[in-house]
């Protein structure tokens, strides 16, 4: 079997232990780097620093285990699954484990990022090693006290036993264990002996969430804090010319009105800019208020004049340039196997289709916000950010401060979806506090959050297949996209290696509209395009849809091609499972099914959508989802993410549209931008492939395939192929029902 | 600025605010009851749902001046120990993902079940339709409302 892609954990000194002044034992470990040998562990809990370690385990003399982890939680459940892995190897009962969101000063705290479904995959081996090493030290301490061999001792739920039947709790030996040498070689458990991993564990913040305790950036408060609302250009391409703030200044809750932008511009022009998104060079008007409402109300009273700096683009312009790119000669080849030109020249039939998707805002339910307090001593930043280390760096350069003086704290996040990888709102908050010399919290209104975002770029694909003697001979995919193109690994996804003549080309158009990563970047729409295309292709080839896929994967298996990302075996596995579980092809009358199979973010997924037609409108009633994500660490958390991904994918494929008119976004709140609601959701029926392979992420991979599953089902119901998202905008009502 | 007396979670609070200030911001910024969330400010998402005299209302659409004299309940006051049947069901099903929408979901569900303790599936879907969950935890929300309904009856 072709091995799945994993990063192997290399054994190195990543862990240290010591006794705490207050009693108990502390173990610090680093998931990504070796600890420097001179690094000392603190002996006082209030001094835990995350410079050299990125998490700590404390074992008290009562045997209670506390895990301190500053890992940000954006809804992926890592805050629950990471401690589960440690507890498993440490051999303690889950009930004795307490997880504390670490005191958040993240000075020099690198590699802390939740994105790309990576957290579990990268941490898996290191977390297991940490738990196992700590256990071994405790066992060694007990063995020394008993004067027996450590190998004679066993552990169950934090109690060590020897062959004579004597027992010692972890708490009894922590002080001795803390000063022992850290063992180099520890044995990890056999996955079949897992007791915690694989059991559903609830969200560790559940009690706080259901009782409304402060958790999120928007909930954060500090002494003397004021609120800041920022007026940004209403259109991409505009910059501030002048403004009149007299209407705002007379309001009793307005404290000050300032402009910012100069620092960002200077930094931008300096050439050393350190952010991965383009940012408007405009000045922005900031209203400082006593409350959020005061600031927002003040902002409405500002009369601003804007001038045009660069072209004001509209959706029609984008459509035209993207179509031109698909047919033009600026396409760059990203991968090419065999000879696509020859295959198409010799073909006796060609199937060619175009697929289109709009821009999409992230719409995290918690709008962008950040706290900043810039003082001569330090720069204190608190809020929901997925990339604290880079925010720290940019702010230190922006304000020309020592990086040591910049402290970033992370809060729980009300959704991420990629938006909080970008630190624009952190830089704004820092610039504002620096100007007013007060602690402030910048809060975006929903309208500003939606209209000054970092969007999933509008994209078009043209896919063509060459057919000769009734057989598929070539596959040619072209991508035209705003600002960027699919990342380097994607051309090595299916159907690479499954078709002899295969080529992927891409081209982009540079726009002044800010774009960036959106849950499952690029594949979020590419999967819809590709898996709809294969449905049409099977029809043209007169082959059963499942058969076509199985055969192609069989070819990939027999093709000794090292540079492919997916595992054909694992894709076949999920396909078989979904066919079985969905009752594929044997539905009740009036129920229509569509299939989609996809690999991305290291996880293999197959989905079948069941739809019914009600008054000419498709209604997705059920989605069966087969997932191969290796070992399932926390089934409860995994279920939540898988179902969420599927429903999110249906919502955006069916309902969500986001156009521009002269640079102005055409939706600014949830009355005009449609997000999926409960009445539009099917039941998601999830099945896992049983596996002993290291776990892969689940935040993203179930979203991309579902659009095609739905579109393919709608085709069966109506005879209409949907190739443009959102599908519901592009279903002509009169064509809806075939009968 | 005018002052208002508000009865929130069985306690009276006096606040000074502009008459048109949405109750949501008074709760969050003046009274530090931050469990009530801001999502849209226009009554579309339900993140700010509270109870006014037992009815689920969008606190972003209620002006502070309109709330005087009413019994206001927020997520913080739904139960004393976080053990309202709806909260218990939310915990049992482990509904939250990012969790941001959930206080609003719970408040909507609690008011709904109070009036209709044994709803049908489609009544549940109708009742919860006004609350957006951007993480799309909808399957679990539906299940949790059913569990809460069972525990109530
Ligand atoms: S904030 Fe009130 S409904 Fe969205
Ligand atoms: S759990 Fe994230 S918005 Fe509902």
Could you explain the architecture of this structure?
The complex is a heterodimer of chains A (739) and B (153). Chain A is an alpha+beta fold. Chain A has 17 helices and 28 strands. Chain B has 153 residues and is of the alpha+beta class. Chain B has two domains: 3-78, Ubiquitin-like (UB roll) (Roll); 85-152, Orthogonal Bundle (DNA polymerase, domain 1), CATH 1.10.150.120. The longest helix of chain B has 15 residues, at 138-152. The N and C termini of chain B lie far apart (47 Å). The chains are: A alpha+beta (739), B alpha+beta (153). The complex binds FE2/S2 (inorganic) cluster (FES) (2 copies). Residues 38-41, 43-48, 58, 60 of chain B line the site of one FE2/S2 (inorganic) cluster. Chain A: InterPro entries: Ald_Oxase/Xan_DH_a/b (IPR000674), AldOxase/xan_DH_MoCoBD1 (IPR008274), AldOxase/xan_DH_MoCoBD2 (IPR046867), AldOxase/xan_DH_Mopterin-bd_sf (IPR037165), N-heterocyclic_Hydroxylase (IPR052516), OxRdtase_Mopterin-bd_su_IorB (IPR012368). Chain A: Pfam families: MoCoBD_1 (PF02738), MoCoBD_2 (PF20256). Chain A: This is Isoquinoline 1-oxidoreductase subunit beta.
Strand content of chain B: 15-25%
- State the name of the first-level CATH class of the largest domain in chain B: Alpha Beta
- Structural class label of chain B: alpha+beta
Compute the average pLDDT of chain B: 97
Number of strands of chain B: 5
Give the CATH superfamily of the largest domain in chain B.
Answer: Beta-grasp domain
CATH architecture of the largest domain in chain A: 2-Layer Sandwich
Counted up, domains of chain B total: 2
Keywords (chain B): 2Fe-2S, Iron, Iron-sulfur, Metal-binding, Oxidoreductase
GO molecular function (chain B): 2 iron, 2 sulfur cluster binding; metal ion binding; oxidoreductase activity
Protein name (chain B): (2Fe-2S)-binding protein
InterPro entries (chain B): 2Fe-2S-bd, 2Fe-2S-bd_dom_sf, 2Fe-2S_ferredoxin-like_sf, 2Fe-2S_ferredoxin-type, 2Fe2S_fd_BS, Beta-grasp_dom_sf, Diverse_Oxidoreductases
């Amino acid at each position: 079997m072709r091995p799945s892609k994993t990063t192997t954990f290399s054994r190195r000194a990543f862990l240290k232990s010591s006794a705490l002044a207050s009693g108990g034992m502390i173990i610090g470990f680093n998931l990504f780097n070796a600890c420097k040998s001179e690094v000392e562990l603190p002996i006082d809990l209030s001094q835990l620093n995350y410079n050299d370690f990125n998490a700590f385990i404390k074992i008290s003399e009562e045997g209670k285990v506390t895990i301190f982890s500053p890992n940000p939680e954006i809804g992926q459940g890592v805050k629950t699954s990471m401690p589960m892995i440690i507890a498993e190897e440490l051999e303690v009962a889950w009930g004795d484990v307490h997880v504390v969101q670490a005191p958040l000063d993240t000075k020099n705290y690198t590699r802390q990022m939740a994105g790309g479904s990576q957290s579990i995959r990268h941490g898996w081996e290191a977390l297991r090693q940490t738990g196992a090493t700590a256990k071994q030290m405790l066992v060694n301490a007990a063995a020394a006290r008993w004067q027996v061999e450590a190998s004679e001792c066993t552990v169950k739920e934090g109690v060590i036993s020897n062959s004579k039947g004597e027992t010692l709790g972890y708490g009894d030996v922590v002080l001795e264990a803390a000063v022992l040498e850290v063992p180099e070689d520890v044995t990890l458990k056999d996955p079949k002996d897992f007791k915690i991993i694989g059991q559903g564990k609830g969200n560790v913040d559940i009690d706080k969430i259901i009782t409304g305790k402060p958790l999120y950036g928007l909930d954060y408060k500090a002494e003397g804090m004021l609120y800041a609302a920022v007026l940004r250009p209403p259109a991409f391409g505009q910059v501030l010319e002048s403004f009149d703030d007299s209407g705002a200044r007379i309001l009793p809750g307005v404290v000050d009105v300032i402009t910012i932008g100069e620092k960002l511009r200077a930094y931008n022009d300096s050439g050393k800019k350190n952010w991965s998104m383009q940012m408007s060079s405009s000045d922005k008007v900031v209203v400082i208020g006593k409350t959020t409402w005061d600031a927002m109300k003040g902002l409405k009273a500002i009369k601003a004049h804007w001038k045009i700096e660069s072209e004001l683009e509209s959706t029609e312009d984008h459509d035209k340039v993207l179509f031109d790119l698909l047919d033009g000669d600026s396409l760059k080849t990203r991968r090419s196997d065999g000879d696509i030109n020859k295959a198409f020249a010799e073909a006796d039939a060609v199937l060619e289709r175009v697929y289109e998707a709009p821009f999409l805002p992230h719409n995290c339910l918690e709008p962008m916000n950040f706290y900043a307090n810039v003082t001569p001593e330090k720069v204190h930043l608190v809020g929901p950010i997925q990339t604290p280390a880079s925010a720290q760096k940019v702010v230190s350069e922006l304000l020309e401060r020592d990086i040591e003086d910049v402290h970033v704290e992370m809060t729980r996040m009300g959704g991420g979806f990629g938006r909080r990888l970008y630190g624009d709102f952190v830089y704004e908050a820092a610039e504002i506090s620096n100007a007013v010399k007060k602690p402030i919290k910048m809060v975006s209104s929903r309208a500003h959050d939606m209209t000054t975002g970092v969007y999933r770029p509008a994209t078009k694909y043209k896919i063509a297949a060459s057919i000769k003697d009734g057989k598929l001979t070539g596959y040619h995919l072209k991508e035209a996209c705003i600002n960027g193109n699919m990342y380097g690994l994607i051309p090595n996804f299916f159907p690479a290696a499954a078709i002899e003549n295969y080529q992927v080309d891409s081209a982009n158009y540079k726009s002044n509209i800010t774009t960036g990563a959106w849950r499952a970047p690029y594949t979020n729409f590419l999967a819809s395009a590709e898996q709809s295309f294969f449905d049409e292709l099977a029809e043209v080839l007169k082959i059963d849809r499942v058969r076509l896929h199985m055969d192609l994967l069989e070819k990939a298996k027999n093709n000794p091609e090292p540079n492919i990302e997916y595992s054909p075996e694992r894709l076949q596995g999920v396909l078989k499972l979904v066919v079985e579980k969905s009752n594929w092809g044997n539905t009740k009358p009036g129920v229509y099914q569509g299939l989609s199979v996809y690999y991305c973010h290291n996880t293999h997924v197959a989905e079948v959508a069941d739809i019914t037609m009600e008054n000419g409108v498709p209604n997705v009633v059920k989605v069966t989802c087969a997932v191969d994500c290796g070992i399932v660490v926390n089934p409860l958390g995994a279920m939540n993410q898988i179902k969420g991904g599927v429903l999110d994918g249906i919502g955006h494929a069916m309902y969500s549209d986001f156009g521009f008119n002269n640079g102005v976004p055409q939706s600014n709140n949830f009355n005009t931008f449609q997000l999926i609601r409960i009445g539009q959701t099917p039941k998601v029926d999830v099945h896992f492939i049983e596996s002993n392979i290291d776990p892969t992420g689940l935040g993203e991979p179930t979203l991309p395939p579902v659009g095609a599953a739905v579109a393919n089902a709608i085709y069966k119901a109506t005879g209409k192929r949907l190739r443009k998202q959102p599908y519901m905008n592009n279903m002509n009502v009169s064509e809806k029902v075939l009968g | 600025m005018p002052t208002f007396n508000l009865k929130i979670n069985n306690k009276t609070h006096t606040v000074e605010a502009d008459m048109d200030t949405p109750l949501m911001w008074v709760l969050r910024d003046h009274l530090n009851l931050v469990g009530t969330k801001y999502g849209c400010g226009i009554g579309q998402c339900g993140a700010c749902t509270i109870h006014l005299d037992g009815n689920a209302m969008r606190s972003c659409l209620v002006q502070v001046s309109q709330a005087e004299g009413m019994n206001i309940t927020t997520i913080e006051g739904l139960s004393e120990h976080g053990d309202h049947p709806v909260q218990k069901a939310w915990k049992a099903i482990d509904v939250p993902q990012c969790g941001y929408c959930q206080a609003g979901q719970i408040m909507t569900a609690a008011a709904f079940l109070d009036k209709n303790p044994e709803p049908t599936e489609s009544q549940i879907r109708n009742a919860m339709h006004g609350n957006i969950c951007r993480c799309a935890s909808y399957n679990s929300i539906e299940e949790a409302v059913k569990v809460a309904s069972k525990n109530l009856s």
